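ingest -> validate -> predict -> emit
validate: passed (alphabet ok, no gaps, 237 aa)
predict: started
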Amino acid sequence: MTHHCTSIQLSILRNEVDSDTSLQSNMGATTLHLRSESKALEHRSALTPTTAKALIDAGYTVNVERSPVRIFDDSDFEKIGAKLVPEGSWPDVPAEHIIIGLKELPENDTFPLKHTHVQFAHCYKNQGGWEQVLSRFPRGKGTLLDLEFLAENGRRVAAFGYHAGFAGAALAVQAWNYQLQTGKADGMPGVKPYDNEDALIKKIKEDLAAGEKKTGRTPRALVIGMTNSNIRQFPHH
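emit:
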């Protein structure tokens, strides 16, 4: 919903890469390749310009695919020293390059995967097609570092946290106001990304005011998802 995108934590990525010497290039700095997301409606980015700059400063080479869908402009990465490369070029880069993405690869692709991929693969909970996805790695001698299962001291280190709950709570307020204004329990129109957090908050305040005018009250608490990290409480006015 907002431009606050999930970012791979620098320290975790460095630990994962550095712990496996087979991922290191003998020709110099390790090259990280940020691919353009191919999943429909996915505008988030696995790396932010800030994180990419930190990786470059730490000695990594960061190549960033041009992307018509990424929430950050291509120029934002170019300004911090990343090299822009063509969209969808990752299959043809050298095998030692590490491919970084956020969501899974297209389901209709079947060619062997020769690279190390860092992404949410959605394969380990019996999701449809998991066998075909995982089989691509041994066929190409590639490696999957699934973000869902990177852990430190028994806790996930790459997960959707504060802003996932933030956006979910915002959608809940919008749905609450929509139901009040229309009398419909479903059918809320789709929403589009906001330019920034302030724009989203402005819209939610408008929805809260409209709902309060209709009912004389505002929500006291919103429960989103199934974990405490995704529960936000709005004060009663």
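The CA atoms of residues 148 and 154 lie 12 Å apart.
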